[in-house]
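dumping this here before i forget
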Amino acid sequence: MEPMPSTKNLPPEERGTLLTLARNSIQFGLDRGSQLSIRIEDYSKRLREKRACFVTLNKHGTLRGCIGHLEAVQPLVADVIENAYSAAFRDPRFPLLQLSELDSLDIHISVLTPASPFPFTSERDLVDKLQPGIDGLIIQSGSRRGTFLPSVWESLPEPREFLRHLKLKAGMTADYWSDDILAYRYTTESFSTE
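structure:
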């Protein structure tokens, strides 16, 4: 059985290491057209734990790419490197990042806690239980699935609108509701170069 990842905040030097790795991953992708590889054993025990993360790239305050994993599939350092590269070069919503954009990027890393089932009795109950600014939310209905990181609360601070926009992201209509909807919540530890 895998040990549970540490839920304590990362110390500033480890946050700095991850932000540097994310930037190096993007720079390597621009220079070589491939993903950076590292020796996992060169990093602290905490950074080698299996953790899920998202890497968000903003340019002048506007989203420029965001990719991540909801489940822990690899050591945190490897997840940051992969997701930074993917946010720059594989996010289908944006063209490939260009070298001229690198210096204007703000790199934001969100390290996720494991998602847990979020019980509710109705759509209103789900909305009422949401904790703005704290909860990351995953919703799923059949094969449709979507998530919003807690940072999305900054642009959608009202719980009902947060849920409506998440349903749209998941490929549902904003007013869609079904008894088969499942919800999971998680929190994040977030830090950025900004």
